[in-house]
Fold these 2 entries.
Entry 1:
Amino acid sequence: MENLVRQGKVIYVGSSNFAGWHIAQACEAAKARHFLGLVSEQSLYNLIDRTLELEVIPACQAYGLGLIPWSPLKYGVLAGALEKAKEGRRAAETAQRAIDKNRPALEKWEALAKELGEEPAALGLAWLLSNPVVTAPIVGPRTMGHLDGALRALEIELDDETKKKIDEIFPGPGGAAPEAYAW
């Protein structure tokens, strides 16, 4: 990657699906070579899949990497899937398994979104964007309505009480490691 940067073929280097340890190794190796190294990490991160909070997010914060979450709405499951379960990708087997596994939380999630007057998708993206390490989620709008909904997330500011309610619905791992599991 260092050679590609020197040759002008790439400007910056990012990683994808690295563990916190791998991020640290890559950043320390780059530092030892006086090279900028990684600037971003692309990983699975959404309200249902929050294990990144244990080590990847702390590593990104420590080394100044931006986090680019993929599948920010869990195959559309966090986008109001209970109301739309019969349409589009939510009818796919992977989405149906996620819906079945998370149904009680999804019921509370969709009720909270309704209470706040927001679409669940926009609210889920706003939650990601409220984390300062998140640069931008990778969204896959298939319609202008999907794009407008994703852009709405930029306007939503979540207060502490709303974030607390979200954490009650979708509890994360309890913070960074090792404190999340050792104390």
Note: DSSP finds eight helices and three strands in the chain.
Entry 2:
Amino acid sequence: MKTARVLCSVLLVSQLAGAEIKPVKHLIDTHIHLYDTTREKKVGWPPADDKVLYKPHLPPEYNKLARAAGVTGVVIVEASDRLEDNKWVLDLVKDDQFYIGLVGNVDVYREDFDQHVARLKKDKRFVGVRARGPKAIDFSHDLVLSNLNMLAQRDLTMDYLTNGGGIPGIKIADRLAQTIPNLTIVVDHCLGYDFDGKPPSNDWVAAVASLASNKNVYCKISGLYQRCATQPAIKDPAYYQDVLEVLWKNFGSRRLIYGSNWPCTKHSGTYASFLTLVDTWISKKGPEARENYYWRNSATAYRLPLK
């Protein structure tokens, strides 16, 4: 019996290491970061003491591993808090049709927020803003709400990062979704849940249900490696199952989105191992759910030119 368990474990690790997944019409990775730590202006993230991430992470490296895993298109999420870096990353992938979107960074407290968003939107790949800045954001602040209303009016999407926010972060997103119902909100990294292998609390489940009742909210099944309490992250899909099932029950087939969070995945495994991990889960929901997860839902949430 012990031998059988060992063989199963070895097989699982082997599969997660680089097995090819069944093809889908499009496979869109909606969450990667590109940056160059050798630039004259030092990056604010990642921290310099991170020996894995603090080095250039640029298109040639990502292209190779992502295409090998079956990825057909990419949405970059800007990790810098410098306004000018939106253009830097757009210029970086200017002639590469593999990169179809950028969720940029424009401080939602800026008085000239809409002017910068309008300028960036001249590039059709600019699909939205991840709301973040040098200080915690008060999403009930008049200027913040005014700027996010303008974002919605321009048919652009807001990414919301609630890492470490837990239930309070989910409730903030819930209130915002109700306040601006025409704003498409994509909540990153499984709503910032800290995976510990245990079933989620009833309070968390209730908060998710309330958030998901807002039809303008999507959830990225992304960042599982980084949100895992054990590091390097557990690679057994069963470890994440209870939480993912809550997200599936509430967001359903039409509002869950794939994202890898590369290069942060490097701390725990290969790109292919992360993709295989999430695919093991979503494949059990059927072929239509896979197509929705890998591209249809992101095409809707970010208004991507996919058919």
Note: The first helix runs from residue 2 to 18.
